[in-house]
Write a structure and sequence with these properties.
By secondary structure, this protein is of the alpha/beta class. 47% of the residues lie in helices and 14% in strands.
């Protein structure tokens, strides 16, 4: 059974994270062929168009729309929703245009509460697949004006992203299985005892030596494992975080209490990253799921969806979906461009 993050866990994931959901990638935002795909969609929209970003997270895709709008004088009205508690405003120092976007947290994509026929484009970058597909498509249909479009980038189970996610999940499990954090915590507890009592008895000294040896051995095993990986970033982060705590050069500036807090934080982060990678695996769609998506969209009177692989850096990165409602379809609405 697939494991999925709840709203609180997603809120924790986005807090103090980068703009995108990718760990250590897309530092400034989605770029290259991904950015080009979205700019081609934005170019078809009229001035003043209303855009809704589903599962916006920290607002990466909504920001691409805001940047295009500012550069091309389009005056887009952009809303980003997410069912987690999100705070993209915390990233405004580096991305000022986030201030031009309306963000709504605690808002599920299946029931946005937004007005009927109020959007010209509903879009999603790795968010649509985390929801209930039939219910979300019905909501998208309700929200779009006649002629409005739906576009999304969706994780595919056979993509490079999922390959990396599977490797990252294996790394988190390997770190969790190791005794590094438990051994490190036991060492710090002896440091605390030394600080309290001024000395350690022979038994504690022998135990400290064994713990030092065990910690060095476990770190060496993880480092040898890391050398076998294409992208050992998580294992490297894990081992280096521990090594910094026990570097003698840091002995005076890091208290035992701070070391224990750092070890506990590292354990929590490893667990959170493992849950995130399992969630990603569970959300990704297979070919049969894209056929179901196509059928559901057509049942809601969308034009035949254009579903195709999307490459990035010469590798299969995801699948894209693009479709529009016929101009005469949908709920009637007043002229949105007075």
């Amino acid at each position: 059974m697939a494991e999925h993050l709840d709203a609180e866990q997603w809120g924790d994931w986005w807090r103090n994270r980068s703009l995108t959901s990718f760990h250590g990638h897309f530092r400034h935002n989605y770029d290259g062929s991904l950015r080009l795909f979205w700019e081609e969609r934005f170019a078809t929209l009229p001035r003043g168009a209303a855009i809704l970003d589903l599962a916006t997270g920290n607002g990466a895709l909504a920001l691409l729309a805001a940047e295009y709008s500012a550069t091309h004088d389009r005056n887009f009205r952009i809303t980003g929703i997410d069912y987690a508690t999100i705070r993209p405003e915390s990233l405004q120092e580096d991305h000022p245009l986030l201030a031009d976007i309306r963000f709504l947290g605690n808002t599920p994509m299946e029931n946005t509460g937004l007005e009927d026929a109020s959007q010209d484009l509903v879009m999603s970058q790795f968010g649509f697949e985390y929801g209930n597909m039939p219910a979300t498509i019905r909501e998208i249909r309700r929200l779009l004006r006649p002629g409005g479009c739906f576009s999304a980038m969706i994780h595919h189970r056979d993509s490079a992203v999922l390959e990396q996610a599977r490797e990252a999940l294996a790394q988190t499990k390997r770190c969790e299985k190791s005794t590094v954090t438990k051994t490190a915590a036991a060492l710090v507890e002896l440091q605390q005892k030394l600080a309290r009592e001024g000395s350690l008895d022979t038994q504690d000294q022998q135990r400290a030596q064994k713990l030092h040896h065990a910690l060095a051995s476990e770190l060496d095993k993880l480092n040898r494992y890391a050398r076998q990986l294409k992208d050992p970033s998580h294992v490297r982060m894990f081992t280096q975080s521990i090594m910094v705590l026990f570097d003698r050069r840091n002995a005076a500036r890091i208290s035992p209490e701070q070391r224990l807090e750092a070890i506990d934080r590292l354990t929590t982060e490893n667990l959170g990253y493992r849950r995130r990678m399992k969630d990603l695996q569970g959300a990704a769609l297979a070919d049969k799921d894209f056929l179901t998506l196509k059928r559901l969209l057509e049942q809601q009177h969308f034009a035949s969806p254009d579903i195709r692989p999307q490459e990035y850096a010469n590798r299969h990165f995801c699948h894209t979906v693009s479709t529009c409602l016929p101009p005469g379809s949908g709920l009637s609405s007043p002229d949105p461009y007075p």
